[in-house]
Specification:
The protein has 10 helices and 11 strands. It is elongated. By secondary structure, it is of the alpha/beta class. It folds into 2 domains: 117 residues, Periplasmic binding protein-like II (D-Maltodextrin-Binding Protein, domain 2); 97 residues, D-Maltodextrin-Binding Protein, domain 2, CATH 3.40.190.10. The longest helix has 14 residues.
């Protein structure tokens, strides 16, 4: 596995003659990063005449299954670093670098805000909690690590309050906005981007996830891929605007 450094030394060319015209670059992006991803893609497509970026969002595990089945894709940005090994095992990893850090929290619905004010309130009987499917979303795997740190007694209390297990963070947000659940596992950045209040998970239990920027072996044009990677790096302020933090080495 080859890891590329945090800062890519890519020379941005003054002309676009080296790029393939009338082509598309496919960027598979974890659902928690949808809003900054949409803005970056729109900005790039508006100003770049050589090739267009097609953004595909969803649960990190769901996206990897799509990439593997289709054998098509250029960039893959899951919400957790453990997907690097999964991508490598499928023979789809060319290289990767760290992109952003995301911290799990419990986001609150309108009903949840009335009854949940502290971490301990999440364990009150009758509180409706939404968690994630570990097979399809990074937050599901994150919660397993959080759960292990909690210990069996506290973990059992949370499980008793769970009413839904979601496929991706977009489902969590939808359930919160429609008051189907009182609290749902999310990243702090996702909660901020959707103007949702949230309860922080105590540091002794929490597990910060790092989203990698993976170049796939199925990329169609390496010059195009490197050009767009540098564009993303040059616009990390868009991620920051939505509450994300650049990854630390």
């Amino acid at each position: 596995m080859k890891r590329i450094p945090f800062l890519l030394t890519v020379t941005l060319l003054a002309c676009t003659s080296t790029f393939s015209y009338a082509t598309e670059l496919y960027w598979y992006l974890g659902a928690s990063m949808t809003k900054p991803g949409q803005e970056i893609t729109k900005l790039f497509n508006k100003g770049n005449p050589a090739f267009s970026v097609v953004l595909i969002t969803g649960g990190s595990g769901q996206l990897l299954s799509k990439i593997s089945a289709a054998g098509k894709g250029d960039l893959y940005t899951p919400a957790g670093l453990h997907y690097v090994k999964k991508t490598e095992k499928l023979g789809l990893l060319k290289n990767y670098s760290r992109l952003i850090d995301q911290t799990p929290v419990f986001a609150l619905s309108a009903s949840g805000q009335k009854k949940i004010h502290t971490w301990d309130d999440l364990t009150t009987p009758g509180v409706r909690i939404g968690l994630g499917n570990p097979a399809t979303m990074a937050l599901g795997r994150s919660y397993l690590k959080i759960q292990n740190k909690m210990g069996p007694e506290l973990a059992t209390t949370f499980k008793q309050n769970m009413v839904v297990e979601t496929m991706n963070v977009s489902q969590v947000i939808n359930y919160l906005k429609t008051d189907i659940i009182d609290a749902g596992i999310a990243f702090d950045s996702t909660a901020k981007a959707n103007q949702l209040q949230y309860i922080k998970i105590p540091q002794k239990y929490n597990h910060v996830e790092t989203a990698p920027l993976i170049t796939l072996t199925s990329e169609t044009n390496s010059d195009n891929t490197e050009y767009f990677i540098q564009f993303i790096r040059n616009h990390l302020d868009i991620f920051i605007k939505y509450g994300f933090q650049p990854a630390t080495e």
